[in-house]
Amino acid sequence: MVSLSPNSTSDRSPSRVMLALSNGRRFAKTHKSIVVGAIMVGFVVAMAALAPVLSPYSPTRIHPLDRLAGVGSPGYLLGADQQGRDILSRLMWGARSSLAIAVLPLTIAGILGLVLGSVAGYIGKLPETLIMRSMDVVFGLPPILLAIAVAATLGPGLVNLVISLSIVLLPPMTRVTFQVVTTLKEQPFVDAAKVSGATTPQIIFDQIIPNSLAPVIAYGASLAGSMVVFGAGISFIGLGIQPPQADWGRMINDGREVLDLHPHVSTLPGLAIFILAAGFNFLGDGLRDLLDPRMRM
Amino acid sequence: MIALLVRRTLFLIPVLLGGSAIVFFLIHSAPGDPIDALMGMYASPEAREALRIKYGLNDPLLAQYFRWLGLVLQGDWGMSIQQRVPVLPLVLEKFWITILLTSAASLFAAIVGISAGIISAVKQNSWIDHLILILSVFALSMPPYWLGLIAIFVFSVQLGWLPTGGLYSFSGQMELFDVLKHLIMPAIVAGLTPAAIIARVTRAAMLEVLKLDFMTALRAKGLRERTIVLGHAFRNALPTVVSMTGLQIGYLILGAALFVEIIFSWPGLGLEIYKSVVGRDMPMMLGLVLFSTFIFVVLNLAVDIIYRVINPRVREA
C-alpha cells in the first residue's frame, strides 16, 4: 500500500512529495471502492470518537417538552424521539456499539479461525477430522437463528452479542483458513522451514499463519458490512444493547410506533446503519481485490 | 451417484445430532430454574427435590439429552409458555405461511439477480455494469427492517396503495388477490439482498465462461449473440448460479424473512420467533430453532445434490 512515510514531512525535496502525491492519486484512481468505503467508515468512526465532544446533549437526556421535535427544529438538528431525546446525540453514541459489533466478533472469530484452520490444514489427520467436522456441525445451523438462540440464552448486552456473533462467524473463518492452508503447505518455503529444523508449532505460527493472513483478512472484511446489518437486527429484536443506552437497531424499533406521523425517528438510524454497512462493503470489495487477486470479481 | 447420495444423507445424522445437542444445551443453560417456574419460590426443599427426581433433573446431562431427543423424535416438542399450545403443530402451521413469503421473495431474487448479473457480465465495464455493481452494494447494505419501514411509509401511509402488513384483510376471506396485495411488499423487501448476491455471483460466473475459447468458436460459427449468451454461456455458468441461489434461499427463509415478517406482521415462523424472544418463551423459541435447523440442513443437502446433478464436472467426484 502506498502512504506517506513518517519522516516524509521533514524531507522537503519536492520530487519525493510529488511522487507520493501522484502515487496516492493513482492508488485512489485504481482502488475507488477502498477510498469511498474508507471515507464512509471514517466518517462514522469520527462521529463515534468525537461523540463526547460534539454531541449536543447526553444520549440518554430525556426532555418530554421537546418530544418528537422535527428535523431541523431549534436545538435538535435531527429532531427528537418520543421521550424528547436528541436523535443526533443518540446516533453519535450509537455508532460506538455498531462499530464494536462490526469489528470485534470478526476479530475474535478471525484469530481463533486462523489458529484452528492452520492446525487442521497443516497437521491434517486427527486434528483435521476433529476441528473440521465439528465446524461442519455448527456451519450446518442457520446463522441468524443460532445467534438469536445464543444471545437469548446468555441474556442481552453488548458483550453477549459479541460472543454469539463470534460463535456464528467461527466456522466460516476456520473453513476459509483451512482452504488457504491446504494449498499453502505444498509451497517450497514450508519445506525449507522443515528442512532447516523448525518444529511444527514454529512452522504454523511463523510460516503458515502469517502467509494466510491476507486472504483471511480479505474474507473477513467482506463480511463486516453484513455484520453491521445483522448485529443491529439482533438489537432491533431486543436482544442486543439494552435501553437507555443508544443503539441504532433499537432506535429503529422504538420509532416504529410513530412511523406514520414522525418517520424521521426510525428512518434516520436506519440510514446510519446503511451508511456504515455500505462503507464496509465498499471497503471489503476493494480489500479483496487488493489482498487476494484470486477472488477478484 | 447413489453412493454419494447415501453418503451425503448419512452426514445429516451428525449435523442434526450436534445441532440438537447445541439446542438442548441452550435450553439447559437458559437463565431461570424450571422448578421455580412450576412451584413458585415458597415450596419446601423436600417438595422441590421430589419434583426434581420426578422430572429426572438430577440425572446426568447426557441421559437427559437422550430422553429429550426421544421425546422430540416422537413429536413431543413441549408446550409454548405464552400460547399454552403444543409447539410442534403450531410450528408446522406457521411454516407454510413463511414458505409462501420466501417462495415469492426467492422468485423475485432469482429473476432480478440473474438478469442483472447476465447484463452486467455481457456489458462488462460499461456504465450499466458499474450501476448494477453499485446498486448491488446498496442492496447488500440495506437493513431489511429499515427498507420495510420506508416501503410501508411510502406505499401504505403516503400513497395508500398497499396494506401495511398482515396476511389478509380482516373484512374479506382469504382471497387470492387480497393475499397477493399483502405479499408484494414483504416479498420484494426480503428478496432484495439475495437478489444482490445472486447478481454478483452470476456476473462472476458469466465472466469466467465468456473469456473461454469456445465463445470465440461460437461467434465464428455465426451464432446470434443472444443464443451465445443465453444458450451457451449461461448454460455453463448455471451450476454455480443455481447452488448460490439455493444457498441464498436457505438464508432467506431463516434470515431476512425473519426481520421482514416482524416489520410487516407476516404471521410466519419469523414473527413467532420474535414473539417468543420478547415473551421469553424458551420452549417455543428452541422448537422454532430446532425446526429451522432441520429445514436448513435438508435444503443445503438438496442444493448440493442438484449442483452435482447439473454439473457433469463434479458428478463423479
Automatic annotation (TrEMBL), chain A:
Matches recorded under Pfam families: BPD_transp_1 (PF00528), OppC_N (PF12911)
Gene3D superfamilies the UniProt entry points to: MetI-like
Domain ABC transmembrane type-1, chain residue ranges per copy: 95-284
Subcellular location: Cell membrane
Keywords: Cell membrane, Membrane, Transmembrane, Transmembrane helix, Transport
Transmembrane residue ranges: 34-54, 99-124, 144-170, 216-241, 268-287
Membrane topology: Multi-pass membrane protein
Similarity comment text for this entry: Belongs to the binding-protein-dependent transport system permease family.
PANTHER family cross-referenced by the UniProt entry: OLIGOPEPTIDE TRANSPORT SYSTEM PERMEASE PROTEIN APPC, PEPTIDE ABC TRANSPORTER PERMEASE PROTEIN
Protein name: ABC transmembrane type-1 domain-containing protein
Source organism of the structure: Mesorhizobium escarrei
From TrEMBL, chain B:
Cellular compartments annotated: Cell membrane
PROSITE patterns in alphabetical order: ABC_TM1 (PS50928)
Ranges annotated as spanning the membrane: 95-119, 131-159, 179-201, 241-264, 284-307
Protein name per the record: Glutathione ABC transporter membrane subunit GsiC
Domain ABC transmembrane type-1 as annotated: residue spans: 95-307
SUPFAM superfamilies: MetI-like
Keywords: Cell membrane, Membrane, Transmembrane, Transmembrane helix, Transport
Matches recorded under InterPro entries: BPD_transp_1_N (IPR045621), MetI-like (IPR000515), MetI-like_sf (IPR035906)
Pfam family, one: BPD_transp_1
Gene that specifies this protein: gsiC
Family the UniProt entry places it in: Belongs to the binding-protein-dependent transport system permease family.
Record-linked CDD domains: TM_PBP2
Membrane topology qualifier: Multi-pass membrane protein
